[in-house]
Amino acid sequence: MTNNFQLPVEPTVAQIRAQLDAMQQAQLRDGTPSAAVRRDRIDRAIDLLRSNKSALVGAINADYSCRGTQQTLLADILASVEGLRFNREHLETWMARPATVEPFPGVKTRVDYQPLGVVGIISPWNFPIVLAFGPLGGAFAAGNRAMIKPSELTPATSELLAELIARYFDSKELTTVLGGAETGAAFSAQPFDHLVFTGSTQVAHHVMRAASENLVPVTLELGGKSPVLIGKDADLQRAAERVLTVKTFNAGQICLSPDYVLIHADRVDEFVEHAEAAVARMYPTIRGNADYTAMINLRGFERQLSLVDDARQKGASVVSLAPAGEDLSDPSARKMAPTIICDTTDAMRVMQEEIFGPVLPVVTYEAFDDALAYINARPRPLALYYFGDDADEHEQVARRTTSGALVVNDAMTHVFFDTLPFGGVGASGMGHYHGEYGYRTFSHAKPVVFQSAGGESNLLMRAPYLPGSESAVHGLIDA
User: Which of 85, 346, 401, 463 is deepest in the core (most CB within 10 A)?
Assistant: First the structure.
């Protein structure tokens, strides 16, 4: 019988802890779930998304005031369903025990992948479904239960998720915790068996500090400034189209969005021309275009304007890609035009902060080594996008830079492939999930050893040491 219990909005610390305790106790009582139980949980998550996709699309659109239906269907619903399907189809293979090996004569060993217990998931507002159900798929495949804390910045979506989750899941399988920053702080301080946070690097410091009080392992999916490096022979039309496709998707409110372009000084004008043409083809109008997403709130809209103003005041050339004659200054619409910033310097905020909008700074270089040095002098990005067909350049980028991912001649496509790990490095995050990588992240790899009847591997440690045993140790060392 499903227990449709829901925590109240803004629950107390004691209420969150009591719910977590109940889930952890249920996990211990029921033991490691079978493949059938794991598949059932994943199937219900898929059914939740499929059966309620129209309501979810409507809720996200209401939270944004305007978000393209296809964007939500593609990036939030389909990506979630595909990830869940992938986990369901492969979990029995992942659960299979590795072949038994004999590290010492007569000794048998194996590795059991055991569920951790209850996984806490703090999901953000920019993709409120997939960034909750993505890690949830891995947690379920690994046999865990989960608690989700969705963002208070998308209240309609978060409230609908809480209602649907209570309808499809027993509260000891999956629970939603609703509330603002104080609730988020209380959530991150709970003794989960693993905690996943997707959001800003600034908030991640607080989350990791809170988790450390209980020695909770964390997976941090952050962001930073993902560069686009355009090589000497790159097709600029192709590069501009693909970069601006992602930079305008969700109005650039994506942790993996291209954050700045590195290009040879002689090619800037041509790149800008292709960017203008690409945006004109995709969005002949923006103000009333249901396919062009609004900034999440007024604060986000005003921040984009302030980034542009700061750059202009510090000497940048600003190229607005807004349709001719279209006024996008109305704060009630919150439609930020794609904007290219040329002649940038490191003193400008657009080169110091993660942009999280459709503003795209351009940085020039003279020598390819200079471009690599520029990337390496900054915090490691969540992704690096290289455009070009020069094999030597590509090899240098792969060998001499470090990033969460490297994508060649495209941007962001790697996030849709469940066969690949997703995660950052350094300031862009730690840990990863997706597919088998998520299964391993949310499992404990427990070694199991069966000692031989004679216990030979134990004898060399046992005192009093037998005559000749030291020589035997020397022999093993020198073998």
Answer: 401
Sequence-distant (≥ 6) Cβ neighbours of residue 1 within 8 angstroms: none
Catalytic residues: 221, 255
What pTM was computed for the model? Answer: 0.95
pLDDT at 66 over 90: yes
Question: Could you give the CA distance from residue 335 to residue 332 in angstroms, rounded to a whole number?
Answer: 9
pLDDT at position 455: 84
Taking residue 39's Cβ as centre, other Cβ atoms within 10 Å add up to: 18
Share of the chain above pLDDT 70, in %: 100
Q: Cis peptide before 464, with omega less than 30 degrees from 0?
A: yes
Place of tokens 């849709």: 416
pLDDT band of 1, cuts 50, 70, 90: very low
Q: How buried is residue 292: exposed, middle or buried, by Cβ count under 10 Å (0-12/13-18/19+)?
A: buried
Residue ranges in 6-129 assigned as alpha helix (H): 13-30, 35-51, 53-64, 69-72, 79-95
Between β-strands 194-198 and 118-122, what pairing exists: parallel, antiparallel or unpaired? parallel
- Determine the Cα–Cα distance for residues 306 and 331; give it in Å rounded to an integer: 13
State pLDDT tens for residues 437-469.
999 999 999 999 999 888 877 877 888 888 888
How far apart (Å, rounded) are the C-alpha atoms in residues 108 and 408? 45
The pLDDT, as a whole number, for residue 2 is 52
Q: What confidence tier does 470 reach under pLDDT thresholds 50, 70, 90?
A: confident
Task: Tell me the domains of the chain and their CATH numbers.
Answer: 13-222+430-444 (3.40.605.10), 226-421 (3.40.309.10)
- Token pair 């046992």: residue: 462
Phi–psi pair at 246, nearest 5 degrees: -75, -35
How are strands ordered across the β-sheet holding 226-230?
317-320, 339-342, 359-365, 258-264, 226-230, 384-387, 406-408
> Measured between alpha carbons, how far is 446 from 428 in angstroms, rounded to an integer?
29
pLDDT of 307 strictly over 70:
yes
In which order are the strands placed within the sheet that holds 429-430? 174-176, 145-149, 118-122, 194-198, 218-221, 429-430
> Which residues neighbour 337 within 8 Å (Cβ) at sequence distance 6 or greater?
286, 320, 321, 322, 326, 328, 358
Kindly provide the b/e burial profile for residues 52-86, where b requires at least 16 CB atoms within 10 angstroms of the residue's own CB.
Answer: bbeebbbbbbebbebbbeebbeebbbbbbbbbbeb
Which pLDDT score, from 0 to 100, does residue 43 have?
A: 98
Between CA 280 and CA 289, with CA 284 as vertex, the angle to 5 degrees is 130
CB atoms within 10 A of CB 353: 14
What lies within 8 Å, CB to CB, of 267 at 6+ separation is 230, 236
Burial class (CB in 10 A: 0-12, 13-18, 19+), 416: middle
Mean pLDDT, all residues of the chain: 95
Strand 145-149 to strand 174-176: parallel, antiparallel, or no bridges (unpaired)? parallel
